[in-house]
Every structure is written in C-alpha cells, then in structure tokens.
Amino acid sequence: MRQLWRIIKFTGELWRYYVVISLFTILIAAMTTIQPLMIKAAIDQVTKILSGGHASTTIVAILAGIIFLTDIGQTIFSNIGGYLGDIMAIRLKQLLSERYYQHMLSLPQKYFDTELTGKIINRMNRGIQEIGDFMQIISNNFLQFIFSTIFTLIIVAKYSWPVAVMLFALYPIFIWLTTKTSTKWLKYQSEINENLDVASGRFAESIGQVKVVKSFVQEVRELAFFGRHINQAVKTTRPQSKYWHKQDVIRRSVLAVIFFMVFGFIFIQAARGVFSIGVMALLILYAMQIRIPIFSISFLVDRFQRAVGNTKDYFEAMDVRPEVADQPNARQLVVSRGEIRYEAVSFSYDDTPVLKDLSFEIKPDSKVALVGESGEGKTTITNLLLRLYEPQHGTITIDGEDIGNVTQKSLRENIGVVFQDPALFSGTIYENISYARPKATQAEIAAAAKAANAHEFIEKFEKGYQTEIGERGLKLSGGQKQRIAIARALLKDAPILVLDEATSSLDSKSEAYVQEALERLMKGRTTLIIAHRLSTIQNVDLIITLRGGKVEEIGAPKELASSGGIYDQLLKLQGGHTEATKKKLKEFEIAA
What we know:
- This protein has 21 helices and ten strands.
- It is an alpha/beta fold.
- Among the domains are: 318 residues, ABC transporter type 1, transmembrane domain (ABC transporter transmembrane region fold), CATH 1.20.1560; 72 residues, 3-Layer(aba) Sandwich (Rossmann fold), CATH 3.40.50.300.
- The chain is elongated, with a radius of gyration of 36 Å.
C-alpha cells in the first residue's frame, strides 16, 4: 500500500479530477444499486397480479421507467467520467514527463556517465505509461466498486444477514489470495524490465551510431544482441504469466465455492417460503453484481502490481539527489575581469583519482592551453569550472568568487563552450545558433554567423538559416558544424570561454575557416583551451602541462620551449613522421 500511496501522492496536483470523477462513479454505483430494487418491486407487483391479488400496472410501468432513467443516467455519467478520465490521464502523463525531464536535467554529469540513454528514456516511458493507466483505472472504477459493494451489502443485510456475511467474506479472502502472488510476480517483472532496458539502451546506441555499425558490418551482431535480451524478456514472461493464471484458477475456484453456498442458501430459503420470489430475485441480482467488482479486483491488483513493478526504476531515478546543487543563499555571479583560479583542487571518479592538489591561475583576457596525456584530467578541469562535477577538495574562483557559492545558472551564463564534438540539435541552423540566446534577432544571429565564417555557406542552402540539419547536424560537414557551434558561442558572448579545440580532424581549408573564427571568438575573453594542435599551443599566453593529475609546468610557450618538459618534448616531435612519433603525439591527443 505504501507504493500505492506514493503514486497517488506523487500525482496529487490533479486532485480536482479525482474528486469530480469519483463523484460520477458514486452516482453510477447508486444507480446500479437501485435497479435490483426496482426489479424486485416489479416482480412483487406482477406476482400479485398473476395470483389474482390487487396490484397496479401503473406502478410496474413507473418502475420500468425508473430502470430506463437509471440506464440513461449511467450512460451519461459514465461517459462524462470517461471523458474527464481521458483528460486526467493525458494531463497526468504531461505532469510526470515534465517532472522526470526536469529532474534528469538537474542531475550531475556523473549520473549520465553511468546510465545508457535508452534506459533513461525507456524508464520514463514505462513508468509514466503504467502510472497513467493505473490512476485512470483507479479513478474510473475503484470508488464505483467500493460504493457499489457498500450499498449492495447494506440492502442485502436488510433482507438476509447470512447472505450479506457470505458476500462480504469474499473480499478479504480474494484480496489475501491475490496479494500472496505479488512478491514472486514482481521478481519476474524486475527481470523482464532489466532485459527490456538493456535492449532499449543498445537500440538507442546503435541507431545513434548507425554509421559505425554499417561501416564495420555489424548489423547482425547488433540485432542478435537486441534479440537476445528481448527473447529473455519473453522467456521470463512465460513462467510469470503461468504463475499468475495458476493462482487465478485457485482464487476463482475459492470464489465459486462461496457463490455456490450463497446461491444454494438463497434457493433453499425461497423454496421454504422464507423469501418471496421478488426477494429471491433481488438477492440473486445483488450477488451477481458483487461478482463483477470481486472479479475486477483481480484486474485491479494485476494493474497495481504492474504499476509497482514498472515504476520502481522511475521512482528510483526520481529519488536520485543532485550532487551539484545551489546553496540556499547562492549569489548571482557577475564577471568583471574574468580571472580564474584553481586552489588545491582534487577530484576522483568514484575511487579513481584524476586531479591531485591542482593549483594554477588564469589571468583576465588570456589564452591558456591545457596539455597532457589522455586521462590526465584536461576535460575534468573544464567540467569542474562549469560545475558539472564538484571537486572533493579545494576551490575554484572567478574574480575571487568561489563558484560553489554562486548559482549554477549565473555561472554557466558567463561561460561559453565549444566542444570537440559540435553537439548540434536536430532542427534548423537558425535554431541551433539561437540556442545560446533564444530571443536574439535575425540580425544578431547573422552577425554571429559571419564572425564564425558560417554565413557564406549558410546562404548557399536553398532555405538559408531555416535549413534542417538532421540529428546532430548529420547533413553538414565537419567544418560547417564547427562553425555553427562557434557562431552559437559568439552569440552567447560570455566573458569566459572553454574551448575543446576541434580542428584536428578537419581538412586544411575547413581548418583555416574554423581557426579564423576561433581567433575572433577568443578575442577579449579569458579562454581555457584543451589543445589538439601544436600551432594552437604555440599561440597561447600560457601553457599548463599535466602529469599524474598534477601541474608539471606553467609558463609561456617561449619559456617552456627548452625546459625539457612535456611541451619541449612535443616540439621536438612535431616534425617527425615515424610510427613512434605519431604514437607519442596521440598519447597527448595532439594531431601529427
């Protein structure tokens, strides 16, 4: 019941729908209960007429009219309630989807490092679908069952308390027999969900990298992986369903025995003259009415178990607390100079140390290159600046302000980022550039595109800035995507720039366009660069080399050119074309 209460509480914003729908279901229950009374009264009147007694055919006609009106009333109220239930269900899915999405966006980068995109999406779809369906069933049926039962048992008790007791006993017996199956059923469901999530996660990965799958001719392998997990879910469904229906046979058999006792008692009492024909018909009709909610409980419990089993991962995800959160008194960051300082910063991914007591300073309006072998923490340093992660020790300040004391929104508003992967969205070129500032004018967007050397190629497209670029910009070349990303950063116009330089994989012409655009972008900004070309490193104000998670050297290019350190080694390798030279440069993620 704790899970049921959580689902109801979680969707409490829609309480008005629940109340109104519940009122209609109570009215339907009352009308359903009235009909057997009308039938009983009509039978009594007809019996009197047939036996030569005094009775009124007018009353019989009125009773028929009341039955007709209750039928019409049930039709109207059930459809109004059904309409409200449909609206409630879609509003519920909207609420749960937005809440889940908002929560996912609040989680730290670390959460997404360990989760497959497909699993995250599948978890949302499954959880929301189950909660929506379950709450619609509850609102449309649950109270109707409850009040139908209450009204029915009260009336039955008036005519025969033994029948009322036997009918009442059906509920605790049936519910107990049904809930006995829950633990084992949920265990099966957990296994099914795990396999479906893995299959869905791999599906999303394969579709997202379909070019890799096709180029390595691995379609059969990917399909086999997907099919293996789907097949395992199917295999698990068989014993799960077999177990449920085997238990259902037991439950229904027990109910059949109780109903046999109920009907036997009614028939014998009527035969003895204790019940009139009308009373016998009344009790039989109410017993039959009780059968409907009793057997529907099996369906409700089944849906409840599905809701609990299929929302487990959804609620576990919603329970994850953001590790990076604004302090209650967090201030707005205002960047006046753009000075950045790392002071004794240490960071680990789980138990793997990456940065150890790292300290350095970046002067305002300067270009600083981070150089080190792969895995030395260059990207981690920029992620910490953006507060995608929090350092375990030490502080990072901007203009003397600890970034842990300012709002994440104001921090990231003051930092522009150009990733090595341009990271574009499906949609138009206009939408991708304006992503940095949605309210920017057409003129501002065009100006940013011109500064990024993108305007000329954009204008050549038939639809210009309204050209659809496809998922992740697949319709654009590498150089074009980079220039769109640079235009986006230019439009943001943040005083601090993080640049994961991305010219190493471009042809010489594209690289020239991109490099020129980058020079414009870096002008007048404090820039932190993860360098991938020696030419870039040579043109910065300061080089920071990393080894073993610590700063090894700090200095201007000329100062470090003959120091014997990492930068000096890279300079000596730049003219080499041997495999050993290429391998060494690759270790530092530097293009040969």
